[in-house]
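Contributing new complexes? Match this layout with alpha-D-galactopyranose.
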Amino acid sequence: MASTAHPVNTAPNTPPATFEELYGHAPEGEWAAPGRVNLIGEHTDYNLGFVLPIALPQTVRAQARRRADGVLRLWSAQGDAAVTELRVADLAPGSVAGWAAYPAAVVWTLREAGHPVDGADLRFDGDVPGGAGLSSSAALECAVALACNDLYGLGLTAPELALLAQRAENAFVGVPCGVMDQTASMCCRPGAALHLDSRDLAMRQVPFDLAGAGLALLVLDTRVKHDLGDGAYAALRAGCERAAALLGLPALRALGPADLPGALARLPAELRPLVRHVVTENERVTAAVAHLDAGDLAALGPILTAGHASLRDDYRVSCPETDLAVEAAVAAGAHGARMTGGGFGGSVIALVDEDAAEHVAAAVTAAFRAAGHRAPRTLTAVPAEGARRLS
Ligand code: GLA
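Output block (do not edit by hand):
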């Protein structure tokens, strides 16, 4: 969520330092955790609703070696040249700035939960674009969580590690995110979308064979991140929780479409659009999963576009750049398109016929040029594997 996540890739002038050069010994292993795009189900996770993310092939990789002296050393090929050195005993929320806060947060959270984690030497490298709404921060957290789990023999499951990584971001970094990004990074499988119920973390891998259906999923990174992002996210979450409290519900998840008119009538005007988005968005996830189960992947398109309209008009987390990318993609023949992630910039996904991918990407780029925006960065998303050990 936070824009201070794993730094944006910059082409280094010199080859990046190896683990041995940095720390004088070899790593014990290497772990990878992916970024994600969410197909549908936005701003539903902290309302205990449904989400449907896929993992990206792009990952954050962590090489790691245990230390027994309480020292945590961190270095990233995408960071500045310096090694950050911390003492695990001194870690406290707010005590670490920048990208190093994310790995430190995970170590702190594991120790807070009573797990016997000591120091470590960690070296990161990765290709998840930072600040693009593709969960580079969750990827960083999950790579560290899995490395610690394996190195220290903690025996935690992937969903348990995801919850710990979310707690790290909430309690240490101070971002009140839901559980989607970390669960996607830990639990997604190749060729599938993850249908996750954020209330009890029940999950199902829903087959999502884009190539088999002659389709492709474009990710258009608008390369904008509007500053209001993090504060606005917390305010929206607080608004949803206030609405649930006013309705006497544990969370907005408890509302179905049939309850909506009655619920809206009982709420102050400013909360109604938030509640309408959450209820209709949960419905869109359910409809999307039904189409995927029926093997009709293209039917996802109009659901994506309707989801974007709801985020734009009701939840108000889109921005001119994401709106333009959606409009231009649909006008160029995409089956549907929407912003993905928290909003206020970041990326748009567009579901396209495989042979139309280049045309749609070019049309969005041309629309950005005409509007005076920087050209978007384009990726093609293939549902990839969740966090794993590489060596
Ligand atoms: C960010 C958060 C997630 C989720 C999305 C919006 O990515 O980290 O928990 O709330 O925004 O769906």
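Reviewers usually confirm one structural detail per submission. For this one: The two ends are 29 Å apart (CA to CA).
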